[in-house]
């Protein structure tokens, strides 16, 4: 943990999809600056517990919470769990997403709905459950994790592109409605990030398009931006999309 006092000391965060990769890095980064963290995962209890344990071993406070964020009752329960354990909810990082790669003519209706539900419905349900606590505190941060493919397009991922694009609209709407309550809402949009999914043994396809900074991004670089957006210095930033992609897309 950091020895100098952090302006985030005592804040409480929920990080969805917090058991692995970007979510794990975000949870650990926030915890290292004094934030108590609820590490959410949909089913991987072992991985979520491991992240919470890492945070505890480093001197922080965290708990693992397993729930499906497309279930609004389960999301409401998660928010209440955070309040009971740590006293409030100040920061929401909606990172949970879904793997969905198939030509759009082969996508059935159930797959389509599920692909939209996890990133988009989940972010909406989580924001709706957490915002009242932030309004009460007159302070809050809502950060969603988007993706560069929503801007440059990617074959065989039409559902995920629609969901990630929807997150931008959701975030802008929330930014307008919640600004008077001291709550900022932003999207962090990663490019090609060095992550490993279960069962891949670290394998990943090469980049089809190489950015000017010729490497994969690191999960810590995404976590760093999320951390910054939570700081007092970022209080005038809201409704924005922060692109972290090595120059592959400039967001203009």
Topology of helices and strands:
Blueprint: E1 12-15, H1 21-32, E2 36-41, H2 45-57, E3 62-66, H3 72-86, E4 91-94, H4 109-137, E5 140-145, H5 149-152, H6 158-178, E6 183-190, H7 219-230, E7 241-244
Parallel strand pairs: 1-2, 1-4, 2-3, 4-5, 5-6, 6-7
Helix pairs in contact: 1-2, 1-7, 3-4, 4-6
How would you portray this structure in words?
The chain has 252 residues and is of the alpha/beta class. The protein has a single domain (12-244), classed as NAD(P)-binding Rossmann-like Domain (Rossmann fold, 3-Layer(aba) Sandwich). It is built from 7 helices and 7 strands, in the order E-H-E-H-E-H-E-H-E-H-H-E-H-E. It has helices at residues 21-32, 45-57, 72-86, 109-137, 149-152, 158-178, 219-230; strands at 12-15, 36-41, 62-66, 91-94, 140-145, 183-190, 241-244. The protein has a 7-stranded parallel sheet with strand order 3-2-1-4-5-6-7, sandwiched between helices. Strand 1, helix 1 (21-32) and strand 2 (36-41) form a beta-alpha-beta unit. Helix 1 crosses helix 7 and helix 4 (109-137) packs parallel to helix 6. The longest helix is centred in the middle third of the chain and has 29 residues, at 109-137. The model is unreliable at 199-204 (pLDDT under 50).
Provide a brief overview of the structure.
The protein is of the alpha/beta class and 252 residues long. It has a single domain, classed as Rossmann fold (3-Layer(aba) Sandwich), CATH 3.40.50.
């Amino acid at each position: 943990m950091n020895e100098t006092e952090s302006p985030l000391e005592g804040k409480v965060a929920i990080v969805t999809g917090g058991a692995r990769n970007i979510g794990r890095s975000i949870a650990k980064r926030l915890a290292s600056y004094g934030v108590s963290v609820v590490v959410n995962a949909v089913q991987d209890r072992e991985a979520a517990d491991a992240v919470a344990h890492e945070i505890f071993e480093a001197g922080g406070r965290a708990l693992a919470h397993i729930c499906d964020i497309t279930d609004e009752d389960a999301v409401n329960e998660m928010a209440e769990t955070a309040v009971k354990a740590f006293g409030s909810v100040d920061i929401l990082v909606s990172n949970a997403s879904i793997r969905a790669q198939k030509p759009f003519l082969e996508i059935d209706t159930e797959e389509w709905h599920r692909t939209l539900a996890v990133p988009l419905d989940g972010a909406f349900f989580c924001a709706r459950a957490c915002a009242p606590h932030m309004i009460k505190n007159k302070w809050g941060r809502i950060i969603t994790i988007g993706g560069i493919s929503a801007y440059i397009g990617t074959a065989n991922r039409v559902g995920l592109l629609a969901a990630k694009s929807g997150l931008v609209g959701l975030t802008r709407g929330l930014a307008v409605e919640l600004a008077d309550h001291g709550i900022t809402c932003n999207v962090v949009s990663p490019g090609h990030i060095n992550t490993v999914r279960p069962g891949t043994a670290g394998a990943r396809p090469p980049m089809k398009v190489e950015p000017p900074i010729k490497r994969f991004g690191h999960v810590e670089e995404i976590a760093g931006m999320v951390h910054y957006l939570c700081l007092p210095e970022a209080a005038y930033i809201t409704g924005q999309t922060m692109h972290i992609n090595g120059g592959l897309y400039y967001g203009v």
